[in-house]
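The protein record filed here:
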Amino acid sequence: MKIQKIITLSLVISNLLCAERFIKEGEIVYDNKTKLSWQRNPSSERISVNNAKKYCTNLDYGGKNDWRLPNQYELVSLIDYKKYNPAISTELINIINGYYWSSSFDKRNTLYPYIVVSFQDGIDAGAGKDYNEYVLCVR
């Protein structure tokens, strides 16, 4: 009985903490867990990995100009594995179905060394430098 109460209490606390994890601040979403800020509206077009890096570096969004391309783990931190298609809260970030560039690189995969993340199903995959994908910048 005590174990059941402890489990129930921990689930309630966990849900409360998750409810306050993300805070919308205008066009920016702040993640209290990772201390990262995300743009609410990612790129509307697919672009190359080199242009994705430039896109974030040159981005002036929400009154901020210190954006960068997130790594694989930062992108994956946004995924809600209790959801599917999309596996992310669309109330927070206006996701377009497709893959998103990360700054992560897999040296072992010579054909598809660039890591991309899908918010549709929460998986990551490899991509070639000639691929065009969406961009979601972080700061």
Helices lie at 2-19, 49-57, 72-76. Residues 22-127 form one domain. The chain has one domain: 22-127.
